[in-house]
Amino acid sequence: MKSFFCMLFGATLFFAGGLAATAAAAETLGPEALAKRVTDDVLSAVRSDAALRHGDKQKLLELVESKVLPHFDFHRMTQLAMGRNWRKANAQQQQTLIKQFRDLLVNTYTNAFTQYRDQTVTYMPVRMQPGDTDVTVRSRINQPGGQPIPVDYAMEKLSDGWKVYDVTIEGISLVQTYRGTFDQEVQRGGVDGLIKAITAKNQALRATRQQGQ
Q: What is the mean pLDDT of residues 38-48?
């Protein structure tokens, strides 16, 4: 299940890359409008880029760094994934965990990307009231010849725009999924043991990406 979830998360990060509009647009548009406005443009751009279509992972990594990551709140994602164990980490360990968890999601994404080609995305109307700062954007990834995959983005409005802090795929939450794994690692080796495990996983994923270049 974890490998299947991570593979799908690679696709959702790609589609969430559509949230990377200009800073002004990100501040003025609501979460649903922002996603709808730019997703088609991003999908079109990727489909027209031969290097990305053929799995150029370095170019994909650059795309992720520039367009996707600014719209994810990795601090909150890491804190939620750590759960009660977050308080066991000191300030330096927390910053290391945020960086390593961020890298883990990016490395997973770049390694999974080449499995996606012809999907489209449909966004559902967002139920929100004026002044709401925490909403869920619901979408469906439409697969040729397959059933649509429901993907929900939990988003919070911060001073610099809307940020994604959790992704739920077919009812399975990203942060909840990692919370169980992280808790097991902390029980075995403490916070430092968790950091060591994530770092090792990132090294393995980077090696796999480099071998594929």
A: 63
Q: Residue with structure tokens 């950091």? A: 195
Phi and psi angles of residue 146, each rounded to the nearest 5 degrees, phi first: -135, 175
Q: CA angle, corner 180, sides to 101 and 60, nearest 5?
A: 30
Tell me 67's DSSP state. Answer: I
- The rounded distance, in Å, linking the Cα atoms of 185 and 190 is 7
- Which pair of structure tokens corresponds to residue 158? 């911060």
Nearest to 109 by CA among 9, 211, 208: 9
pLDDT tens per residue across span 202-211: 999 888 767 7
Distance, in Å, from the CA atom of 5 to the CA atom of 29, rounded to the nearest integer, reads 30
Reported pTM: 0.80
Q: At 152, give phi and psi (nearest 5°).
A: -115, 135
Apex 103 CA angle, 100 and 107, nearest 5: 140
**Dist. CA 138–CA 12, nearest whole Å:** 12
Rounded Cα gap, residues 97 and 193, in angstroms: 11
* CA–CA dist 207, 213 (Å, integer): 10
Show the DSSP H helices in the chain as ranges: 2-16, 23-28, 31-47, 50-53, 57-63, 74-82, 91-112, 174-211
